[in-house]
Every structure is written in C-alpha cells, then in structure tokens.
Fold this sequence. Notes:
By secondary structure, the protein is an all-alpha fold. It is about 65% helix and about 0% strand.
Amino acid sequence: MDGLFVHQNWLQSPAATELSKTISDELMAMETWMYAEFRVARYAMLHIENPAGIQMWAQLLNRAMRKFDQRYINQNTVLDIFEWPLLRAILLGKRELEETLLQVAQVPDTDPADVMVFGRGQQRFFDIYAAILHDQPHER
C-alpha cells in the first residue's frame, strides 16, 4: 500500500477515499487490534470530512491501545497514524479538520525513553505543521 502514496495527488483522490472506507469498516469490526492494524490505521481516517469523525477515531484508537500490549505501540506509531489524514486535510484546505487532527495527535509523553529519536523528529514535524497553519515563524 505504501507505493500508492507516490502517485501524484493520490491523497486527494477518490481512490484514497474508497480505500479508506474499506479499511475503516474492517478496523471498526475488529474486537482487538494487533500491531499490523495500527500500521494501516493511517488509511482509515482519510475519508473523514468532519472533526467529530476524527474525535471518534481518536477514541477508538485509545480503546484499541488500552487492549493491546502498549510496549509495541509508542508515540511514533500514533503520530504516524495521524500524519496522512493531516496532510490530506492541508491539501484540501479543511482548516477545522486540520486543527482537530493536530489536537488529537498530541500524545502525552509518559515515558521519554519510549520515544525514539525518529519519534522526536516526527513530533517536530507536527510542531512545524502547527506553526505553518497558525502562521507562526519556526526555528530551522
């Protein structure tokens, strides 16, 4: 599936929406998620057009994380889930959706050792997205 992203404008396409709906239906029907389900969850939110839907998915993710052995799910994984929906919202100019995604992507850092160096960089991307969306200058 990762190869799908390289097609020009794929995140904005009807194909992305259809794939998102299919994955969303599958994930919602599952009692317990394994690590693979968290990896494809980024696709499940691409079709959501309103903040209430994003909030609902954030709650679903939190419930799934509580049921799963969280040693394998860290801040990196959660940020990864929200990045593509955030990029899609930016590309489509959906400001309210962007704000909601930035809000729910703020994962409490309960165990700094759990956040790999990559995760710190990924969190920095979200900080830059927020700064850009709020027209704030940011450090390089």
